[in-house]
Amino acid sequence: MVNVQKLENENYGTYYLIENKNNVRLAVSPQGARALDWIIPVDGEDRDLLVGFKTIAEHKKARYYAATIGPVAGRITGASYNIDGTEYQTQDNDGGNTLHGGFEGYDTKDWAAEVFEEGDKAGVIFTLEHPDGENGFPGNVVSKVKYSLDDDNNYQIEYTATTDKPTLYNPTNHGYYNLTGSPVNSINEHTLKVGAKQVAETNPDVTTTGNKVDVAGTKFDFVEGRKISDTYLDDPFILDHEQTPDLVLTSPDEKVRLEIETTAPAVVIYTTGASEAGMQMKYGEMADHGGIAIEPQGIPGTEKYSQFGDIILRPENPFHSKTTYHVEF
Q: What CATH number does the domain located at 3-328 have?
């Protein structure tokens, strides 16, 4: 039986702790509809798989760690886009582009929270109402993010949204992971496997070009699984959904295996580097290459390139996406 508690402390403020029979614990916060901790027992000791901070204040300052990102994850090139012949302007918060929804993206918002129990799982549903025109996004949008945990160690995030006007919509969870339990350790010895034969090519400013590039023979080839080593990434992997799960990350000691299955068309993978090294995290200072962000979403740039699909949310077609994180230990 999965248990959910509403708690409060000086570090996290109000938050929710979801725990299953295996002593797997998931802590989530209404601030940014974010995950705070994902703790599993390994050889009698707790191991927190999420890279993050000790306090909610630090999370708000750093913004993106394990938060819900929206309305549009990734970069909107030129901070503008077109829907049905109408041009919209969004906030320039990233060198001429809009990053992760702008200055007041979903990660900055306080979401309404509702605890639920459903069959063999339980968790929290966060709800946010985004008013028409805010930050350049049309439509009164109602977003819901449903965090759940079950006794089979499946941590699931489910997204739904409705709108009264056509708008852009491409959310994700910006979770950073280190399966050793602390980002003081490099992720170099983690093994990564990704079911993606292509990546979306990027410009120097990390916007996409519209081209799809084969991964074979490049640093992006994780199809068969290999150690991350000194590979630094900030790239959209286009999932082929031919294998289950879509992505597997294994700890250096091989005692923890994270399997991710998603309905999203792509996963952006970002590895931390020198700019994050030395940051004070929950369990010490971040190492260079101390965390890997795994962000299931539509391919960034889809609003410009129809070959990538469609991220327009319309009144007659509500949004739905689901990602399941299964951990074996």
A: 2.70.98.10
